[in-house]
Design a protein that fits this description.
By secondary structure, this protein is of the alpha/beta class. The chain has 23 helices and 29 strands.
Length: 693
């Protein structure tokens, strides 16, 4: 297949100062939970992006001073020569495929906890560290500190150039860097030449930019990454006021303007709260005030939307973080005319969630993300099966669909049996909930791939029992029958069933998704899951006219959404929906017409009038069929079935990303001998120094 001429503009080279990007696909700096802690994994992941056609591939933020230590977050460092080894390897891997390598130099200023280095944080003013809420305070930088900071930034830029980076990014965004702190009035109340007027507050940013350009000379492009609007109204930068003025004052200084909104939660909104290209209204002015090329992000997954953004004069480059994670080969697929093969980002922010937990990131759509080096998993190719074999997969949810797709690519003969007429399992059901429509892409991508495979047969409305599975004569059987929500209230806080939970007016998310509703208008949602489900059910039922209350034992509703950057937006959405929130509240008993709760903050019991209760606590695997087959094989062992496995939620309920990963892992490892006592991946090994004498 060949590229559709409509997308030719995406493959035009673009000069960025002294260097030229081979196309208009720009993998902007993004955290990944690997960095300096798991450098080989980071290198493998960035190399996959370059192989997949991203014309510019950048690091995550790279700390360049020990008093800018972002630990425990696994970013990259450029503190000394030891960091040059893995950064240099990343450059080599990116250059191997003809892409430009970029590095984002950063110091997180007064937000830096310095938990490893134990250095004192610095910033424009004396103030407590913010991100970690640790009992640590930053000191105000004096003029000598500012000079030293500038010198260190310049030195880092020179080292980046010498390592081989093609682009150095001067970073003033997300309310998380020294220059952005100096620029913000709420952080900078200085009275010297670095405070007061916009020109003064912009002074350090300008100096860093000018000194970086001078330092790297005519071989390295200099990019500004800048948030033009902080989404705070007049309390922060606004694109039509100081945000615009700042760009105008430095319009021709960088080689590229990489612009977005701040803070990170606004810049990386999930699909639940923002559509594709949602930042365009804020950044559209930038190309009007500079002759330099411009880039922005906005979770672009559609090549048509990308082309539109360029042709409408919004940008010259399409920036992407999350879409490049979901599909590292997105540019190549556009170039080869394979649009149906693109794994579109669903905007769930699971990648960010794991990074926020200081762990290597994962992706709902792309199960190979982070495994490129660790398990040698290529994003697009799988090893052919060693022998012809027939695989039966029971259940076409996210795990079953991914297992069928991956096994089909390996050349196995696959039979996929689904008890329902509809495929997709929980993905299909949950994608009908408020704000989650994009999640159906998990199903749609896999279905589009499977339907083109002549070696994969799909049987809908085919509920199999153990005898039928044995009669089919498959060589391998995977049971992917999913999981169901518990009705008894057991979860994290409660480990015994709630009295009254067996009443008819006690429901689960499965009931709601199946169309059942409480008998009256007053509904209590008890959330001991702390992710998205209780909140979206609250939205749904409130929109249907129910009087909804949501109780959780935690101090805040949907606490885990802090990791996916959705917590604040979620709270606002629930407030706007009229959902009554009860934090620090545990369900004690369900009675006729009321629920008995315990308010742990006030140490008292509370009675709430309710007509129905929905339990969102924990799930149990639907594994009875698996055990039936095990028993049947004990009675009739000579069936030809060589392996029997549980896959996905049937093995252990988890998030959709886990189900997809386990489905992929099953299919990729099928036919290989893996000792369960061995470490099933390559580990990052450390060099141990000789004992000090």
């Amino acid at each position: 297949m060949t590229r559709d001429p409509r997308y030719d503009i995406l493959f035009e080279p673009l000069a960025i100062g002294p260097v030229t990007a081979p196309n208009r696909f720009y993998q902007v700096p993004h955290c990944n939970g690997m960095g300096r802690v798991y450098p080989n994994a980071m290198i493998g992941m960035r190399g996959a992006k370059a192989e997949g056609g991203w014309g510019i591939v950048c690091t995550e933020q790279c700390d360049f001073l020990a008093n800018g230590d972002a630990s425990p977050y696994a970013e990259t460092n450029m503190w000394d020569a030891g960091d040059e080894v893995y950064l240099g390897r990343m450059v080599e891997e990116v250059h191997r495929y003809g892409s430009l390598a970029g590095i984002e130099l950063v110091h997180n200023g007064h937000d830096t906890p310095n938990l490893y280095s134990r250095e004192i944080p610095i910033g424009p003013m004396h103030r407590p560290a913010n991100w970690s809420l640790a009992p640590i305070q930053a000191r105000a930088m004096d003029l000598a500190d500012i000079r030293e900071y500038r010198r260190a930034h310049r030195r880092a830029a020179v080292r980046a150039r010498d390592i081989g980076f093609d682009i150095v990014i001067v970073y003033a965004g997300h309310d998380g860097t020294v220059p952005s702190h100096f620029l913000a009035r709420r952080h900078n109340q200085r009275t010297d030449e670095y405070g007061g007027s916009l020109e003064n507050r912009l002074r350090l940013f300008r100096e860093l930019l000018e000194e970086t350009r001078e330092a790297v000379g005519d071989t390295t492009g200099v990019v500004v990454r800048f948030a033009v609007d902080e989404m705070m109204g007049p309390d922060g930068l606004e694109w039509h006021a100081e945000g615009r003025e700042a760009v105008e004052m430095m319009a021709e200084l960088p080689d590229l303007w990489d612009v977005n909104v701040s803070d990170w939660a606004n810049d990386s909104k999930t699909s639940r709260f923002a559509p594709e290209g949602y930042q365009e209204d804020y950044v559209a002015f930038v190309k009007q005030v500079t002759t330099k090329p411009v880039s922005t992000v906005g979770r672009y997954t559609s090549p048509d939307a990308m082309v539109s953004a360029i042709r409408r004069g919004i940008v010259d480059l399409i920036g992407a973080a999350r879409p490049s994670i979901a599909d590292p080969f997105l540019p190549r697929k556009v170039e080869e005319g394979r649009l149906d093969d693109i794994r579109e980002c669903i905007g769930c922010n699971v990648c960010i969630g794991w990074t926020q937990m200081t762990a290597p990131a994962r992706c709902t759509q792309n199960p190979t993300f982070g495994e490129e080096w660790r398990k040698a998993w290529h994003p697009e190719t799988l090893p052919p099966a060693r022998a012809d074999a027939h695989l039966l997969i029971v259940g076409a949810g996210p795990a079953g669909l991914e297992a069928a797709r991956a096994a089909g690519l390996r050349g196995l003969r696959v039979t996929l049996a689904e008890a329902q007429e509809e495929l997709g399992g929980r993905v299909t059901r949950e994608s009908r909930l408020p704000g989650l429509a994009a999640w159906a892409r998990v199903r749609d991508y896999r279905m589009s791939q499977i339907q083109r495979m002549p070696n994969v047969d799909i049987y809908r409305s085919s509920r199999l029992d153990a005898d039928q599975i044995l009669e089919l004569g498959a060589d391998h059987v995977a049971i992917a029958t999913g999981a169901s929500w518990r009705r008894d209230g057991c979860g994290r806080r409660l480990t015994s069933p709630v009295p009254g939970s067996d009443a008819a007016h006690v429901l689960t998310p499965d009931d709601i998704l199946a169309g059942r509703r409480p008998p009256g208008r007053k509904v209590l949602l008890f959330d001991d899951d702390h992710y998205y489900m209780a909140s979206v059910l609250g939205e749904l039922l409130s929109a249907e006219g129910y009087d909804v209350s949501l109780a959780t034992p935690m101090a805040t509703v949907a606490a885990w959404l802090t990791h996916t950057l959705e917590h604040e937006a979620n709270q606002e959405r629930l407030h706007d929906a009229g959902v009554n929130l009860h934090a620090n509240t545990t369900l004690l008993a369900v009675e006729t017409g009321q629920a008995l709760l315990h308010d742990s903050l006030r140490r008292r019991e509370v009675t709430l009038p309710v007509d129905g209760v929905v339990m969102i606590t924990a799930r149990l695997p639907e594994d009875s069929l698996y055990h039936d087959v095990v028993q049947a094989l004990d009675v009739t062992p000579d069936t030809g079935i060589r392996t029997l496995r549980r896959v996905g939620d049937c093995q252990a309920p988890g998030i959709i990303a886990t189900a997809v990963y386990e489905g992929h892992r099953y299919a990729r490892e099928l036919g290989t001998d893996i000792d369960p006592g061995d470490v099933p991946f390559r580990r990052e090994l450390h060099v141990i120094e000789p004992a000090m004498t």
